[in-house]
Amino acid sequence: MFLGALFRLLLLSTPIICAAPSGPWDQFNLAPGSRIVHPKAIHNLSGTVENAINLLANGSATLSGNGSYVTLDFGQEVGGFISLNFDEVTPRSSIALSFTESPLFISPLTSDDSAVQDANMSYDGVLPITAPIETTFYTMPSYRLRGGFRYLTLVSTSESYVTISNVSCAISFMPHVEDLRNYTGYFYVSDTESEYADFLTRLWYSGAYTVQTVTIAADTGRKDPPAPSPGWYNNATAATASPVVVDGAKRGRAVWSADMHVAVATEFVSTNDIIPSRNALSTLFSELNQETGQMPYSGPPLSEQGSDTYQAWTLIGTYDYVLYSGDLTWLESTWSNYTKALQFLANKVDSTGLLYVTGTGDWGRLYQGGYNSEANAIYYKALTNSADLANWLNYTTLAAEYATNALALKTRFNDAFWSDSKGMYRDNLTSTLYPQDANSLAVIFNLTTSMEQASSISEGLTRHWNEYGSVAPELPDTIAPFIGGFELAAHFVSGNDARAMELLRLEWGYMLNTSISVQSTLLEGYTSNGSLYFRSTDGYDYDASFTSHSHGWSSGPTASLTFYVLGLTVTSPQGETWSVAPHTSGLSSVQGGFETPLGWFGVEWSSDDDTFNMTISTPEGTNGVVFLPTDGAVLIDGSEYGDNSTLLLDGGNHTILVQSR
C-alpha cells in the first residue's frame, strides 16, 4: 500500500532543511510537533465513567454500563488512526468509537457524515470494537482511517465494564514528511497596535495547516460508493502517485481540479510541498480522453465527467505548479495532453467569440451553462496562462496564437457581459444576476479594462455582505469561501485594501472563531446565517454534518496575505523573476517569505507617517520589480534613487527607504 511504503521511506529519509527563520510566528503554527497526538480536554461524559481525566495523561479510565461514554477533545483538527490500551475487560466488554469535526454532532451512536450527501441526515455510524476484547494495545484498522476530526467519543456498548488508557491518534496526513512543523515559508504581522495583527498571522497558518490535512497517501481516498453503510472506508486509490492533495480531510478525499488553484498556492508559500499537486494533475491528465480531449473534473474513484470550468481549472493548476516549481521537464511530458485539453474548450467557442458551456458541473453554483461569464473568465485565464507555458517551452508560434485568442475573448467578454448601469458583469447575456465568482475572477484575471472598472466591481461585491461574510448570489443563502477567496484578491487587486481586510474579518474571522467548527482549519462553506445547513445544487438541503471543516479551497487568504499584504510573488518559473508590491492595508509592519528551488525570497517592511522601510532578500541571478506603496524620496542601499515608485532590482539583499517630502 502507498501509505505503508511512504512511512517506510520516511524512516530512511533525512529531514528537509527548513528555510523559514524561527520567530514569534512559530506560536501560530498549528502542525503537531509529533505524529502521535493526544487528547487535550474532556469535552463531556455521560453515565458511569471513572477517572476520565486520567485519559489526558495516558492514564486509565473505566466505563461501566451500556451507553456510558466520554468525549475527548484533541483541541484542533487532526486525522489518522486511533490507538488505545485495553487494561481490564470482561468476556462481554465492548466499546465503539465515534468521530466528529463539529461539536454539534457529538454522539455515542454515530459519527458525522463523511460519505453520503443526501437529505436524510445519514450519518456515518461508529467503529465497533466487539467482544471478546483482548487486554492488549489496539489500533483501528487502516481501512477505517478517520481523515478529519476534533472530537472522539468512546462509548461502552455492553453492561460490562472496560478500562482503557493511552488514547492517541497517529497523524496520517502528509505521510512523506517527518516534521510537520518544518515550514519553508512564514508570514507575520508584527504590528502590535493593529486589531488585525494576531488574527492575520493566525489565519495564514490556519490555511497552511488546512492544506496539510488534505495532503494524503494515494491509497487513503474515500471509498465510493460508500461502504459499509452506515460507516466509512478510506482505502480507495485517489491518485496515480503518492502523496496527493485532495479536497477535504474528513470528506471527499479525492482530487478536484478547481480546489487545486487555491491549494497549490497555499502549499507554495508555506511548505513548498507542491509534489502532491503535481501528482493530482498527473492523475487527471492520465484519464484524459485521447479522442475528445475531455478529462474528468475529479480524480478516482469518482472520476466525474462534464465540467467545462473544471477542465479549465486543471489547465490553470498546471500553470501554477510550473510557475512555483520550474518543472519544465514535467510540463514537456504533459504537453500533448495539455494542448488536447485546451483544444477541447476551444472547440466550444462559436461564432459569438464566447465559450458556450455544455459541461455544466461546477463548484456548486446554480445557473451554469450557455454563454456564462464565470466560465468565460476561467477560460480566458487558461488561454493567457497557456501563452506563457508555450513560451517557457519555446513554442513561440503557439504562444502567439493563444495570446491572440485571449485578447479577442477579453474584448468580447466586456462587450457581452458588462453592465454600465450596475458597474458589474452579468451572469450571462440576458441575466439580471451579477455573480460573485465571475466578477471576482474578472478583476484578478485582468479582464477589466481600467482600475475604475475594477473598483466598481469591488464596491458592487460588498452589496452581498452580512455579518458572516460575502453571500454568493449564484448559490443563494450560501457563503462559499472558495469564491470568497477570489473576492478577497479582487479587493486587493483593485486597490481597495480596507474592503479586503474587512472581508477577512467577517468571513474568515467567523470560521476561525465560531464554536460550531474546529477553530483551526477552514470550513468548506456555510449558510448566510452562519449555520452549517448547506444547500445542494439538486435543490434540497443536505445533512449539515456532511460539511467539511478542513477544505483546501477555503485557504485563499494564506497566499493572498503573502502575495498582496507582504507583497511578494514570483512572475516566472521558480522565481527567476519576481515582484514586490506591498499593500500596507493600515498595518505598520509585516514580514515573511518563501522558498523555491532557487533559494530564499524574503521581505520585511514597516511604515509610518513619514517613512516606508523595506528589506528584500532574493537569490543571486534573479531580478524583479518593486512597486512602492508610497511617494517620496527613495534611497536604495543608502544611495539616492530619486522619486520613482517603480524600481528594477537584481537579486540579492537590498534595503529601501522612502522619505515623504
TrEMBL record:
<feature type="domain" description="Alpha-L-rhamnosidase six-hairpin glycosidase">
    <location>
        <begin position="239"/>
        <end position="468"/>
    </location>
</feature>
<protein>
    <submittedName>
        <fullName>Glycoside hydrolase family 78 protein</fullName>
    </submittedName>
</protein>
<keyword id="KW-0378">Hydrolase</keyword>
<dbReference type="Pfam" id="PF17390">
    <property type="entry name" value="Bac_rhamnosid_C"/>
</dbReference>
<dbReference type="InterPro" id="IPR012341">
    <property type="entry name" value="6hp_glycosidase-like_sf"/>
</dbReference>
<feature type="domain" description="Alpha-L-rhamnosidase C-terminal">
    <location>
        <begin position="577"/>
        <end position="640"/>
    </location>
</feature>
<dbReference type="InterPro" id="IPR035396">
    <property type="entry name" value="Bac_rhamnosid6H"/>
</dbReference>
<dbReference type="InterPro" id="IPR035398">
    <property type="entry name" value="Bac_rhamnosid_C"/>
</dbReference>
<dbReference type="InterPro" id="IPR008928">
    <property type="entry name" value="6-hairpin_glycosidase_sf"/>
</dbReference>
<dbReference type="GO" id="GO:0016787">
    <property type="term" value="F:hydrolase activity"/>
</dbReference>
<keyword id="KW-0732">Signal</keyword>
<dbReference type="Pfam" id="PF17389">
    <property type="entry name" value="Bac_rhamnosid6H"/>
</dbReference>
<dbReference type="GO" id="GO:0005975">
    <property type="term" value="P:carbohydrate metabolic process"/>
</dbReference>
<feature type="signal peptide">
    <location>
        <begin position="1"/>
        <end position="19"/>
    </location>
</feature>
